[in-house]
Amino acid sequence: MNSSPATVEPLVKEQAPFLFLVLFFLVQATVLTVFTVPFSWSLVWVAVASYFLRMFGITAAYHRYFSHASFKTSRLFQFVLAWIGAMAMQKGPLWWAAHHRNHHKYSDTEKDIHSPTRKGFWYSHMFWFLRDDYNDYEAKLIPDFYKYPELRFLDRFHWIAPLSYAVLLYLIGGWAWLVYGYAVSTFFLGHATWTINSLSHVYGSVRYDSRDTSKNNLWLALLTMGEGWHNNHHYYCSSVNQGFYWYEVDISYYILKTLSLFGIVWDLKKPPKKVLEEGLLRDREQKERKLSLQESKQKSKLKNKVGVLST
Ligand SMILES: [Zn+2]
Ligand SMILES: [Zn+2]
After folding, report:
1. Which entry of 7, 211, 272, 299 is 20 to 30 Å from 112 by CA?
2. Coiled coil where (predicted)?
């Protein structure tokens, strides 16, 4: 299913330019500055807090709000969400959401810009966005948010948010906070986010027939505040919650639900009853299939044993 109001044919190529690759790896290498600071648990908590704050910016803001419009909010809080998302250093909200809408439109086809089954693990994980011809995006993919000048500004100068965040961390806690709260945290935040393009299209279980390779994966859901329920999401992408049942942990949704109690966000879109019932039915069928497979395996084992004893 696709929520994009218009589509633009994506251009899919396989190579990332050399210079971009070098720059990217230099930025990645800043994680090694961790060796310049003596270890302390309080610094680890700074890194973890910074990770989850900005993961929320990616999952709740860039993904669920800007890409799929799965809830509504005020213009001011919309900008706050965009800013927190931009702090994750994954480019601007319009760029991110426009490309993501194409991912849903063309999942796992030749036109999918980051399909691990088509282009391999590393390309889908991180090399696709290093391509200079993906620096831009088509405004008509995202007219619902492109119309706001403040979002266009933040999207164009997206580096302002992470830079000011890094400066703030430095002012609060000096070099140690900059290293743990920014360099270390951003490294893990980036790779965790990208697992949704790479690993969650490879490892996990399939509940719905979403006509692509998306999977549900608890570990990735824990790591990404709920994004690991990717098969659910590909099947019904306009839902604000990606964990469809109470036992599918979805921290971003819990936070959004709490914000809705204070009137900060509203109109949270939920999956229809039909989709939920279909999911339960599929789970039941899968369980039964598994049980009957186990039974037939045990029976054939028993048969073999009896055969060996009687000879
Ligand atoms: Zn996907
Ligand atoms: Zn999506």
Report:
1. 272
2. none
Beta-carbon count within 10 A of 153 CB: 13
- Co-location of 176 and 236 in the same domain: yes
Q: What is the pLDDT of residues 153-193, one digit of tens each?
A: 999 999 999 999 999 999 999 999 999 999 999 999 999 99
Measured on CA atoms in the order 124, 125, 129, 131, is the torsion positive or negative? negative
Spacing, Cα 32 to ligand 1 middle (Å): 30
Distance of CA 304 from the midpoint of ligand 1 (Å): 44
247 and 143 within one domain:
yes
Is 120 in the same domain as 189? yes
10 assigned to some structural domain: no
How far does residue 122's CA lie from ligand 1's centre (Å)? 15
Number of domains in the chain: 2
Same domain as 300, residue 174: no
Whole-number pLDDT of residue 181: 97
* CB neighbour list of residue 261: distance below 8 Å, 6 or more residues apart: none
Are 31 and 168 part of one and the same domain? yes
- Neighbouring C-beta atoms of residue 194, cutoff 10 Å: 20
Is pLDDT of 15 > 70? no
The residue segments making up the domain with residue 198 are 18-266
The reply to whether 180 and 158 lie within a common domain is yes
Distance 67 CA to ligand 2 centre (A): 7
d(CA 255, CA 261): 10
Q: Which two tokens stand for residue 268?
A: 């949270």
